C-alpha cells in the first residue's frame, strides 16, 4: 500500500509553529534592550560593596539579553579602590555573559567577560600583593552567582601598571587582550597587542612601542596553578623618544614559561630569556639576558644561573660586557644578593683599550640599583700614545651603579703599574658621561710604554701634530696627585692639581709640583676646540736645579744653578713648531749660585790682563767643556713675541767680574744671538790693569750648544784709549807740577825780599818821660 509523501515545508501547521517560535525567540532576545533594570544596578553595587568595600557606579543603562547568549550589559561603569574614592577602573561597557542552563535553574554562572575601552590602575605592592586580589576572592559565597570563565576580553584598554617594589610604572594604550578557552586546561590561550607607553600621565610620553604577545594558558585546578607556557613577547619602538632617553629603533623579544599561583594571584617562578637591540645617541646596543630558573616563595625570590651579555658599537669604539651570577636571591621587598658575581668588561677604540675583570658580591635593589660592596678588579690599559705595552691595574674597593639615575660610583685602592694608588670615580649620564675623579698615585713611570727613541735621535719631532683624541668627548673634573712622574728623562715629583675638561678644553688650576728640586706653582690652559689649539702657561718656579732640567729636556748642560722663573706665556698651533713661532708673553729669570759651562770668563780676564800685548782680534779658542764661569746671581727679564725672546737687562754678578748684556733667543730656528760685556773687579790685584774695561762676549749658534766669541780687538781699542788717556793725564800732571814748582819758587823769592826790607828799616824812639805837668 502506497503511503502519500508529506512535504513539511508546505505543511500549514508546521509553518505556523515555526513562525510562532521565531517570534517568541525574537521577542525574548530584543525586548530586554528596551527595559531598564534599575534593580540590577543596586543589587550589583550592594553585593560588590559588601564583599570588597568598593563602590560600583553604573551611570549608563543596565540591561539583560538572552540572545545570542544570556548576558548583562552595563554602560559607563566605575569601580573604586577599597574604602576609597580613588578610581580603580572604568569601562564604557561591560558585558557579563552567563551560562544558559544554570540560568534556567535560577543560578548565575559567569562564562565570559568583555570590557569595552576599560581603564585600569593596577598596582603591585612591595610585599608582592596586587590591588585587585579582593575581586578574585570575594568574601561572601553567594549561591546565585558563580564563576566558570571561559573567555576574558579587553578591547581598546588603557592600563597603568605600577610596581612599588621596582619603583617603576608603565602605561598600556589601545590594548586588545584576549584569554580564551580558560575552562579547558589544555587549550587556553593568551593574545595581546597594544601600545606600551613610558612616562608620567601629566607629561609628554618619553617612549612608546608596539607590543604583541602570545602564550598558551594551562590551569591545574588541583594545585591552583596557572602556567603561561611558550610565551613570546615582542616590543618594537614607534616614533622617537624624549631627549633624556635618546632611544631609536628599540626591539625587545622575550620567550619563556611563567608559573602563577591562583587565589591569591602570585608569581611563582619560571624561566625567561630576553634579547634587546636599539640605538641611543648614536650608539648601537645589543643585549641578552638568560634566567633559566626563577623561584618565588611566599617571601623570597631566587634567580639562578643568570647570564648577561651586552655589546655597544659607536663611531668612537665598542664596548662588551659579560656577567655570570650563580644565584641572586633575597626577600621580595628587600635586597637581592649574591655572594659572588663575575663581570668581564672590554672597551676598544682606535685610540685606547681597557680590559677589566670584576669579582664581587652583588646587591640589587628594586631592579635598578646595583651595589658591589667588596670587589676585586684586575685589568690593563693601553692607548696609541703608549704603544709599547699595557699598564696593569689591580684594585679592591666598593661601588654603586644606579641605572635609573645613570650614575656609577667606584672607590678603589690597590696598584697601578705595580705602584700604590687610591682613587674615587663618579660617573653621571652614560651617553655623555661626566667623570668626577680623585686620584692619589705613588709613582707612574711611562718610559717603558713610550715610543722607542734611538740613541742620538731627536726625542721630539717639532712638526708632528698634537694628538688631542683624549679630549674629544672628555667631560671630567677632579683632583690628581702623583708623587713621582717619569717621562723618559723628565722627572716631576709631588704633582698636585685640580683639573676640568669639557668641550675639548682643559684647565689645570692650581697646578703644583716639585720640578728638579724646585717648587712649581701656577696654571695651564689648553683649548683644542678651535682649528688651531691655544695654550697658556702661568707658572712660578722657585729654587729649581736648572742644570738637571736643561740636560733632561733640551739635552744641554751649559748652565747650572738654582733657578727662579716667573712666566706668563701663550701660544697657538697644532704642532711644536707652531708654538715656537707664535709663543708670546713675559719671562723673568733669576739664577743663584750657578755657572756657565764651556767658558771661564775669570780665566779669560786673568789671561787678558797678563798677555794684553797678544790681543790682536784672534777668534776664541774652542770651548772647553770642563771650563765654567761661576756666578752668585743672574737676573734677566725676557719678552716673548712670535717665538722670539729678547731682553736687554742681563745682570750677572760673580766674584771677580760683572756681566751685562742682552740679545735674542729664536725658538723657531733654535738660535741664540746674545751680546754681553764682562767687567773686572778692580779690587783684585792681578786684574787691576783691566779696571774700567769691558770684555765683549758674543753667544751665537744653537740654543742647546752656543758658541762663544771674545772681541779682543774691541778690548784692545779700550786699552789703547785708556793708555792714551793715562799718558795725557800724566803729561798734564807733570806740566801742572812744573808750573806749581815755578810758582812756589817765585813766591819764595818774594817772601825773602820782603824779609830783607823789614830788617833794614830805623827803630822807633821811646818816650823818656811820658808824664808832663801842665803849664802855669
UniProtKB/TrEMBL annotation:
Any GO BP: regulation of protein targeting to membrane
One Pfam family named in its UniProt record: DUF748
GO CC terms in record: plasma membrane
Domain (AsmA) ranges: 454-649
Sequence intervals crossing the membrane: 12-35
Keyword field: Membrane, Transmembrane, Transmembrane helix
Superkingdom, taxonomy of origin: Bacteria
Protein name: AsmA domain-containing protein
Amino acid at each position: 500500500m502506497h503511503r502519500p509523501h508529506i512535504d513539511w515545508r508546505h505543511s500549514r501547521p508546521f509553518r505556523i509553529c515555526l513562525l510562532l517560535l521565531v517570534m517568541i525567540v525574537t521577542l525574548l532576545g530584543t525586548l530586554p534592550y528596551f527595559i531598564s533594570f534599575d534593580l540590577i544596578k543596586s543589587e550589583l553595587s550592594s553585593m560588590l560593596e559588601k564583599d570588597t568595600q568598593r563602590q560600583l557606579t553604573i551611570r549608563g543603562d543596565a540591561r539583560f539579553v538572552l540572545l545570542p547568549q544570556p548576558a548583562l550589559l552595563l554602560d559607563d561603569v566605575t569601580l573604586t579602590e577599597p574604602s576609597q574614592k580613588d578610581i580603580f577602573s572604568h569601562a564604557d561597557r561591560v558585558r557579563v555573559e552567563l551560562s544558559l542552563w544554570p540560568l534556567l535553574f535560577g543560578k548565575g554562572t559567569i562564562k565570559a567577560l568583555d570590557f569595552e575601552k576599560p581603564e585600569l590602575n593596577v598596582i603591585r605592592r612591595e610585599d608582592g600583593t596586587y590591588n585587585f586580589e579582593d575581586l578574585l576572592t570575594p568574601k561572601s559565597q553567594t549561591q546565585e552567582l558563580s564563576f566558570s570563565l571561559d573567555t576574558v576580553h579587553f578591547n581598546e584598554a588603557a592600563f597603568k601598571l605600577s610596581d612599588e617594589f621596582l619603583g617603576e610604572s608603565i602605561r598600556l594604550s589601545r590594548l586588545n587582550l584576549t584569554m580564551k578557552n580558560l575552562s579547558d586546561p589544555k587549550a587556553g590561550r593568551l593574545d595581546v597587542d597594544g601600545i606600551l607607553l613610558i612616562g608620567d600621565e601629566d607629561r609628554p610620553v618619553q617612549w612608546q612601542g608596539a607590543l604583541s604577545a602570545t602564550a598558551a594558558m594551562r590551569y591545574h585546578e588541583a594545585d591552583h596553578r596557572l602556567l603561561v607556557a611558550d610565551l613570546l613577547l615582542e616590543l618594537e619602538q614607534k616614533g622617537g623618544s624624549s631627549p633624556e632617553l635618546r632611544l631609536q629603533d628599540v626591539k625587545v623579544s622575550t620567550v619563556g614559561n611563567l608559573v602563577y599561583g591562583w587565589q591569591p594571584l602570585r608569581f611563582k617562578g619560571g624561566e625567561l630569556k630576553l634579547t634587546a637591540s636599539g640605538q641611543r645617541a648614536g650608539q648601537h646596543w645589543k643585549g641578552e639576558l638568560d634566567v633559566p630558573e626563577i623561584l618565588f616563595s611566599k617571601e623570597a625570590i631566587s634567580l639562578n644561573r643568570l647570564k648577561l651579555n651586552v655589546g655597544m658599537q659607536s663611531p668612537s669604539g665598542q664596548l662588551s660586557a659579560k656577567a655570570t651570577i650563580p644565584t641572586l636571591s633575597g626577600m621580595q621587598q628587600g635586597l637581592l644578593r649574591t655572594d659572588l658575581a663575575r663581570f668581564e668588561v672590554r672597551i676598544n677604540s682606535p685610540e685606547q683599550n681597557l680590559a677589566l675583570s670584576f669579582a664581587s658580591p652583588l646587591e640589587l635593589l628594586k631592579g635598578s640599583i646595583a651595589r658591589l660592596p667588596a670587589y676585586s678588579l684586575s685589568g690593563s690599559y693601553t692607548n696609541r700614545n703608549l704603544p709599547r705595552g699595557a699598564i696593569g691595574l689591580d684594585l679592591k674597593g666598593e661601588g654603586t651603579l644606579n641605572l635609573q639615575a645613570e650614575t656609577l660610583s667606584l672607590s678603589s685602592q690597590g696598584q697601578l703599574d705595580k705602584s700604590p694608588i687610591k682613587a674615587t670615580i663618579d660617573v653621571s649620564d652614560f651617553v655623555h658621561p661626566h667623570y668626577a675623579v680623585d686620584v692619589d698615585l705613588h709613582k707612574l713611570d711611562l718610559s717603558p710604554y713610550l715610543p722607542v727613541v734611538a740613541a742620538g735621535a731627536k726625542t721630539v719631532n717639532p712638526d708632528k701634530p698634537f694628538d688631542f683624541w683624549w679630549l674629544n668627548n672628555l667631560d671630567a673634573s677632579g683632583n690628581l696627585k702623583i708623587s713621582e712622574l717619569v717621562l723618559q728623562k723628565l722627572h716631576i715629583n709631588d704633582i698636585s692639581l685640580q683639573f676640568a675638561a669639557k668641550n675639548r678644553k682643559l684647565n689645570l688650576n692650581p697646578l703644583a709640583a716639585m720640578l728638579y728640586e724646585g717648587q712649581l706653582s701656577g696654571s695651564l690652559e689648553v683649548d683644542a676646540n678651535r682649528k688651531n689649539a691655544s695654550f697658556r702657561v702661568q707658572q712660578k718656579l722657585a729654587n729649581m736645579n736648572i742644570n738637571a732640567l736643561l740636560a733632561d729636556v733640551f739635552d744641554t748642560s751649559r748652565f747650572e744653578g738654582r733657578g727662579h722663573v716667573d712666566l706668563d706665556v701663550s701660544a697657538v698651533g697644532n704642532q711644536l713648531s707652531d708654538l715656537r713661532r707664535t709663543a708670546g708673553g713675559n719671562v723673568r729669570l733669576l739664577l743663584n749660585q750657578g755657572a756657565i759651562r764651556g767658558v771661564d770668563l775669570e780665566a779669560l780676564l786673568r789671561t787678558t790682563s797678563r798677555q794684553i800685548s797678544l790681543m790682536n782680534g784672534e777668534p776664541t779658542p774652542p770651548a772647553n767643556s770642563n771650563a765654567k764661569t761661576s756666578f752668585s746671581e743672574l737676573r734677566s727679564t725676557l719678552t716673548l713675541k712670535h717665538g722670539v725672546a729678547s731682553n736687554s737687562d742681563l745682570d750677572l754678578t760673580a766674584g771677580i767680574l760683572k756681566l751685562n748684556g742682552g740679545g735674542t733667543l729664536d725658538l723657531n730656528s733654535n738660535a741664540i744671538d746674545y751680546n754681553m760685556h764682562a767687567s773686572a773687579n778692580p779690587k783684585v790685584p792681578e786684574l787691576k790693569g783691566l779696571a774700567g774695561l769691558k770684555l765683549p762676549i758674543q753667544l751665537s749658534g744653537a740654543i742647546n750648544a752656543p758658541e762663544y766669541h771674545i772681541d779682543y780687538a774691541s778690548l784692545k781699542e779700550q786699552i789703547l784709549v785708556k793708555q792714551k788717556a793715562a799718558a795725557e793725564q800724566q803729561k798734564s800732571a807733570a806740566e801742572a807740577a812744573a808750573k806749581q814748582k815755578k810758582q812756589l819758587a817765585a813766591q819764595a823769592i818774594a817772601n825773602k825780599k820782603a824779609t830783607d826790607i823789614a830788617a833794614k828799616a830805623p827803630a822807633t824812639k821811646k818816650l823818656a818821660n811820658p808824664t808832663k805837668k801842665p803849664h802855669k
